[in-house]
Specification:
The complex is a heterodimer of chains A (502) and B (448).
Chain A (H helix, E strand, L loop, with lengths): L41 H5 L16 H12 L22 H7 L17 H18 L3 E3 L5 H18 L6 E5 L5 H8 L3 E5 L9 H7 L4 E7 L11 H10 L3 E6 L18 E4 L19 E3 L11 E4 L5 E4 L16 H14 L3 H19 L15 E4 L1 H4 L5 H10 L6 E2 L8 E4 L7 H20 L1 H5 L12 H6 L9 H6 L1
Parallel strand pairs in A: 2-3, 2-4, 4-5, 5-6
Antiparallel strand pairs in A: 1-7, 6-7, 8-9, 10-12, 11-12
Chain B lengths: L7 H11 L29 H13 L6 E2 L12 H7 L2 H4 L11 H18 L3 E2 L6 H16 L3 E5 L4 H11 L5 E5 L9 H7 L4 E7 L10 H10 L3 E6 L16 E5 L15 E5 L12 E5 L5 E5 L6 H4 L12 H37 L6 E2 L8 E5 L4 H10 L2 E2 L2 E2 L10 E5 L6 H16 L3
Parallel strand pairs in B: 1-13, 3-4, 3-5, 5-6, 6-7
Antiparallel strand pairs in B: 2-8, 7-8, 9-10, 11-12, 12-15, 14-15
Helix pairs in contact in B: 3-11, 5-11, 6-7, 11-13, 12-13
Classes of the chains: A alpha/beta (502), B alpha/beta (448).
Chain lengths: 502, 448
C-alpha cells in the first residue's frame, strides 16, 4: 500500500501511546480532600476474604498527561463539528452546545432517581413537556421515555404488541420485516419471542401490498416498517398496509429512524401506525458521542397504552406530577430508573429551540438531499428513481466497471475531508452509497461534497488504483480488520518483563 | 433559525437547481391527506437565553440545597472538571460509532483503554465497549450464559437490585427463561444452603450482586464454587464500581455485569450511565455489543478497529447475539478519563474513604436509641438500618431539615418494612453525617 504521508511528521502527529505505556509508579492525576473522619484499616473492616490489595496494571499519570493524552486522541477523530458527516440513516446533524450546558446544571445533573417525588417536580416537568412534544410531532396518543436507545425502543414496541395480542388471547407467532430494514429489526423481533418472516420489496423498493395481502393471517403479530424507507423514499401505500394488518388483527410498527424527513410535515399517527420508536440521537440532535448514549422513546396508539413500561408519568389532582408504578397490564421495566434522562433533557432543549419551526429543519434536510441527488445523478447510478426525502441512495454500478467499490469511494472521500456516507446498506441495493446530509449543511458544504464525489467518479475511471488504496491522507491507513478478528487483541497487557518487575 | 445555515436566497437557489418552485413540492410523494396543512403547536421557538432560563427554573423545582443519603445503584462521587472538558471536545462529542477506523482512532483507542481498565478492575480477561447501563448489562449477561450453557433456568439472589431483577423478568418472559430466586441470611448475604438446593443440572447460571442491594459484600468465590459444581455459570452484578478499589474483584466469576456510573458520571436522574460486561476469553464470541481490537495498517503502524462484528445485528440480523447497536461510548470515555485521573492510588484512596465514612456513619446512627444495623455482613458504602417506625414518616421529618434520608426498601421487600438503605461516600462530609444523625434522633423522638 502506498504511504503518501509526509515523512517529516511533527511530534504532534505521531501515534499516541496507550495510557498504560505512560504510567509510572507514584504519579497521580487527582487528589481527594483529606479524610475528615477516623481512617480505618480496610483489610480489617472488610475482612481478608473480601479486601483487595491493589489494581494491578492500573495507570498512574498526572492530570496534564491525561489532558494531553485524550486531547491528542481527539485529533484522530473526524466529527460533525469538523465537517459534513453524510452517513445515511444516522442523521448526523448539529448538536447544539446549549443542550450540553443545560444537561449539566445543578439541579438537573445532580438529581437522584430515588429522591422524593416532591423534590423531583422539575425533572418530571421536563419529561412531561418532552412527552407532549413527541406526541404532537408523531400524532400518537401515549409515550414511554424509558428505552435507552433505538434498539431498546424497538424491543419495547414489540413487547407492547405482544402484550396487546396476549390480551386478545393469542400472542401470534410472526413479525414481518421488509428486506430493506435495518438489521436491528429482525434481531429485536427474536428477543421479543417472535419468528421473523422477511418480505421482499416491490420493483420500486416499496412495501409489496399484494404480497402483504397474501401473507397476513392470524399468525402475524405485526409488520415492522421504516418510513421513509431505508431508500429515503416515502412508503406511499402505508395506510393501505395498515388497513390490511388491522383487518387481520395485526399491528403496524414503524421504525422512526428516519423521522427527520417527517417532523412537522406528516404524522405517523395519521397514516395508520400503531407504535413507533424515535431515536433522539438522530432527529432530536442529541450527540452520538462516538456511539452513544442515545434514547429511544416509544409512542403508541391508545390501545397499547395499558401495556407501557413502568413507571408511567402521572398527574395528581393537585396538578403535581408523579410516577405511577402500579399498572397491572404493564410489560414491566426495560431498564433501571426512568431512562436516559440527560439525553431527554438535550432533546427537549432542541425541540424548544425550534418549536413549530421544526418544519423548516425538515424541509432543509430534504432540500439538501435532493440537491445532492440532482448534482450526482448520472455520475453515480441511481437504482430507484422514486422521489427522495431526507436521504438518497446511489449504487457503485458505474464505478464497479473499473473495479472500484462503494467502500473504496467512501474511503477516498476521507481524503477530500468528508466522513464517508453509509456503505453497503440497504441490502436491497448492491454496492449502495447512502447519503444523508441533514439540514445542518450549508449550500457551500453541499457543493464541496458534490465536487468531491464528482472528482472521485473521475478518478475511478482514470486512476482506479488511487481510489482503491485510499485513504492517503490519514495518520493510519486501512487497517487489517481480518487479522484483528482472527487473533483478537482486546486489551493491553504488560510485557512479561514489566510483570516480573511489578 | 440559528441552527440552519442557509439564507433565503440560497434556499431558493437550491430549489431551482433541483427543479422545483417550493420545498412543498419535494413532499409530493406523501399522500396529500397525510400532509400537515399548518405548523405544529409546539412550545417555542426559544432563544439560547430562554432555553437556559427554562431549565434553570426546572432545576430550582428539584432538590438543590438538600443533603442526600441515597445510593441504591446511583452514587454521588467526586468528579474532576477535566473529565467534562475532554468529553465536550467536539471530536469526541459529535462523532459517530467508529466504523471508519482511519478517522476514528481517538474513539477506538479510548474504547480499547476502557476495555483494559474494566478487565483490570473486575479481574476478568475481556470486556466489551459498554452496554446501556448496569441493569441491561445484567440481563444481557444472563442471556449470554443461556447461550453458552444451552440452558434456561436462572437462580438469582433476591439481594440483586430490584429494578435489575425487573428488567430481567421483562426480557425473560418471552424467551422461556425461568428465574428462581434465592433468599438472604441474617448477614444480608445469599443463603448458600438454599442455593445448593436450587442449583440443578438444568441451571444456566447463578446471579448475585456484590456489594448487593443491601450494601453487603457477597462471598462470590463460594457462590461460584457451588454454581460450577453443577456446571452452571456464575454471573456477578456490580452497581457500585468504586467498591473495586477496596473489595476483591469477582475474578472467579464467569461473567461480570457492572454499572460504571460511579466513575465520573453524574446521577442525572437515572441516566445516561455506562454498563459493562466482562468475561473470560473463551466466551468472547458470545459477548453482546461492540468490541475494539488492536491491529495494524498496511505500513505496520498500530491501530484499532471494531472487531468480531459477526456477532452483531447489522451483520447477523435475526441470528445476532443481541439487538444492541450503540454502546454508551461517551459515558465510557468519561469513565476512562476519570479512571486515568484517579489512577491506582486515587481509586484506592477514594474507596478507603468510603469505607471509613461508612463505618463512622454506621457507628453514629446505631447509637440512636432504636436504630440497629439490619444485617451483620461486611459493607462497603451502603448499609441497611432498622428503625422503630416507618421510614417514610421519618423521611418526611428529615426533609424539613433539608435532608433526603434513607431509601425505604420495604417498597420491594415486604418483610423489610421499617428498614432504610443509607449510602455514604467520600462526598459526604463528617458534618453532614452528624447533622443527619442528630436529625434522625429528633425525628424518632417526635411523638407519633
Amino acid at each position: 500500500m502506498s504511504n503518501r504521508r509526509p515523512q517529516s511528521d511533527g511530534h504532534m502527529y505521531r501515534p499516541e501511546g496507550l495510557v498504560f505505556e505512560k504510567s509510572a509508579s507514584g504519579k497521580r492525576g487527582f487528589e481527594l480532600p483529606p479524610l475528615d473522619v477516623p481512617a480505618v484499616n480496610v483489610k480489617k473492616a472488610l475482612g481478608a476474604e473480601f479486601a483487595r490489595d491493589e489494581v494491578s496494571g492500573f495507570p498512574e499519570v498526572s492530570e496534564f498527561e491525561v489532558i494531553r493524552h485524550f486531547t491528542r486522541l481527539s485529533t484522530w477523530n473526524y466529527a460533525i463539528d469538523l465537517g459534513m458527516y453524510p452517513l445515511g440513516s444516522c442523521t448526523m446533524k448539529y448538536n447544539p452546545r446549549v443542550n450540553e450546558f443545560v444537561a449539566r446544571l445543578d439541579g438537573i445533573a445532580t438529581e437522584h432517581p430515588y429522591q422524593p417525588i416532591e423534590l423531583s417536580q422539575g425533572c418530571l416537568k421536563i419529561l412531561e413537556v418532552l412527552q407532549d412534544c413527541l406526541l404532537k410531532i408523531t400524532g400518537m396518543d401515549a409515550v414511554t421515555l424509558q428505552p435507552s436507545a433505538g434498539a431498546q425502543g424497538e424491543l419495547t414496541g414489540l413487547l407492547l404488541i405482544r402484550a396487546y395480542m396476549e390480551s386478545k388471547g393469542n400472542a401470534r407467532k410472526k413479525v414481518l420485516i421488509p428486506d430493506s430494514a435495518h438489521g436491528t429489526n429482525p434481531a429485536t423481533a427474536v428477543i421479543a419471542g417472535y419468528e421473523v418472516e422477511n418480505i421482499r420489496s416491490d420493483a420500486n423498493g416499496q412495501i409489496d401490498i399484494e404480497q402483504l395481502k397474501r401473507i397476513v393471517n392470524e399468525d402475524v403479530a405485526a409488520l415492522m416498517v421504516t418510513n421513509p424507507s431505508t431508500l429515503g423514499v416515502f412508503e406511499q401505500r402505508i395506510s393501505e398496509a395498515a388497513e390490511i394488518l388491522h383487518k387481520a388483527g395485526a399491528l403496524l410498527y414503524m421504525d422512526g429512524a428516519n423521522m427527520n424527513a417527517l417532523a412537522g410535515i406528516a404524522r405517523p399517527g395519521d397514516f395508520g401506525v400503531d407504535v413507533m420508536h424515535l431515536n433522539l440521537h438522530k432527529t432530536f440532535s442529541t450527540p452520538h458521542g462516538g456511539g452513544g448514549p442515545g434514547a429511544g422513546p416509544v409512542v403508541v396508539k391508545k390501545i397499547l397504552e395499558p401495556f407501557l413500561p413502568t413507571p408511567v408519568l402521572a398527574k395528581k389532582p393537585d396538578g403535581t406530577l408523579s410516577l405511577d408504578f402500579n399498572r397491572a397490564g404493564s410489560i414491566g421495566r426495560v431498564r433501571a430508573f426512568v431512562g436516559n434522562f440527560g439525553v431527554l433533557v438535550r432533546a427537549l432543549a432542541y425541540t424548544l429551540a425550534y418549536g413549530p419551526g421544526i418544519r423548516q429543519a425538515t424541509e432543509d434536510a430534504v432540500v439538501n438531499a435532493n440537491y445532492i441527488r440532482k448534482n450526482l445523478e448520472g455520475v453515480f447510478d441511481l437504482p430507484y428513481s422514486s422521489p427522495s426525502m431526507h436521504e438518497v441512495v446511489f449504487s457503485d454500478a458505474k464505478q464497479k466497471k473499473f473495479g472500484v467499490s462503494t467502500m473504496d469511494i467512501a474511503k477516498r472521500l476521507i481524503d477530500y475531508g468528508f466522513h464517508p456516507y453509509t456503505t453497503a446498506f440497504p441490502l436491497i441495493v448492491p454496492g449502495a452509497l447512502m447519503i444523508e446530509p441533514t439540514e445542518s449543511e450549508s449550500k457551500e458544504e453541499c457543493d464541496l461534497f458534490v465536487d468531491a464525489m464528482r472528482a472521485i467518479a473521475e478518478e475511478s475511471a482514470e486512476n482506479p488504483e488511487l481510489v482503491k488504496t485510499a485513504p492517503h491522507s490519514t495518520r493510519v491507513g486501512r487497517l487489517d480488520e481480518v487479522g484483528a478478528a482472527r487473533k483478537p487483541i482486546l486489551r493491553w497487557k504488560p510485557k512479561p518483563s514489566d510483570k516480573a518487575a511489578d | 433559525m440559528r441552527y440552519l445555515p442557509k439564507s433565503p436566497s440560497e434556499r431558493q437557489e437550491m430549489l431551482s437547481a433541483i427543479g422545483v418552485r417550493s420545498a412543498e413540492e419535494l413532499f409530493a410523494s406523501i399522500p396529500p391527506q397525510f400532509r400537515l396543512k399548518q405548523l405544529l403547536e409546539l412550545p417555542g421557538p426559544l432563544s439560547e437565553a430562554e432555553i437556559i432560563e427554562f431549565f434553570t427554573k426546572r432545576a430550582a423545582e428539584n432538590s438543590v440545597g438538600y443533603t442526600s443519603f441515597l445510593g441504591a445503584g446511583v452514587y454521588n462521587h467526586l468528579r474532576s472538571v477535566v473529565t467534562d472538558a475532554i468529553i465536550q471536545r467536539g471530536e469526541f462529542l459529535t462523532s459517530y460509532t467508529p466504523y471508519q477506523a482511519e478517522i476514528s482512532q481517538g474513539t477506538l483507542q479510548a474504547i480499547f483503554e476502557f476495555q483494559t481498565l474494566m478487565c483490570q478492575l473486575t479481574g476478568q480477561e475481556v470486556a466489551n465497549a459498554s452496554m446501556y447501563d448496569g441493569s441491561t448489562a445484567l440481563t444481557e449477561s444472563v442471556l449470554m450464559a443461556d447461550r453458552i450453557t444451552g440452558k434456561r433456568r436462572v437462580v438469582m439472589s433476591r439481594a440483586v437490585h430490584p429494578e435489575y431483577r425487573q428488567v430481567l423478568a421483562t426480557y425473560a418472559r418471552n424467551l422461556d427463561i425461568e428465574v428462581v430466586e434465592v433468599g438472604y441470611t441474617a448477614l444480608g448475604q445469599m443463603d448458600l444452603d438454599a442455593l445448593r438446593g436450587l442449583v440443578h443440572e438444568d441451571t444456566s447460571c447463578v446471579v448475585t450482586q456484590s456489594p448487593n442491594f443491601f450494601g453487603v459484600i457477597e462471598p462470590v468465590a463460594k457462590i461460584t464454587e457451588i454454581a460450577h459444581k453443577l456446571e452452571a455459570l456464575s454471573v456477578v452484578a456490580i452497581t457500585e464500581a468504586v467498591s473495586l478499589g477496596a473489595v476483591k474483584p469477582p475474578a472467579e466469576a464467569d461473567i461480570v455485569a457492572m454499572e460504571g456510573q460511579s466513575f465520573g458520571l453524574a446521577p442525572s436522574y437515572g441516566g445516561p450511565f455506562v454498563g459493562v460486561i466482562a468475561t473470560r476469553d473463551k466466551f468472547v464470541r458470545q459477548i453482546p455489543g461492540r468490541l475494539a481490537g488492536q491491529t495494524v495498517d498496511g505500513a505496520g503502524r498500530r491501530g484499532f478497529c471494531l472487531t468480531l462484528a459477526t456477532r452483531e445485528q447489522h451483520i447477523r440480523r435475526e441470528k445476532a447475539t443481541s439487538n444492541i447497536c450503540t454502546n454508551q461510548a461517551l459515558c465510557a470515555l468519561a469513565a476512562t478519563v476519570h479512571l486515568c485521573l484517579l489512577g491506582k492510588e486515587g481509586l484506592r484512596e477514594m474507596a478507603a474513604q468510603n469505607v471509613a465514612k461508612t463505618q463512622f456513619a454506621a457507628d453514629l446512627l446505631t447509637k440512636i436509641p432504636g436504630v440497629k444495623m439490619a444485617f451483620s455482613g461486611p459493607v462497603f458504602n451502603e448499609f441497611v438500618i432498622e428503625l422503630p417506625r416507618s421510614v417514610k414518616i421519618v423521611n418526611s421529618s428529615l426533609r424539613r431539615e433539608k435532608i433526603i434520608g434513607p431509601l425505604a426498601i420495604g417498597t420491594w421487600y415486604s418483610e423489610l418494612s421499617k428498614r432504610g438503605l443509607v449510602c455514604v461516600t467520600e462526598t459526604t462530609s463528617r458534618a453532614d453525617i452528624e447533622k443527619f444523625a442528630a436529625a434522625l434522633g429528633r425525628a424518632l423522638a417526635e411523638p407519633l
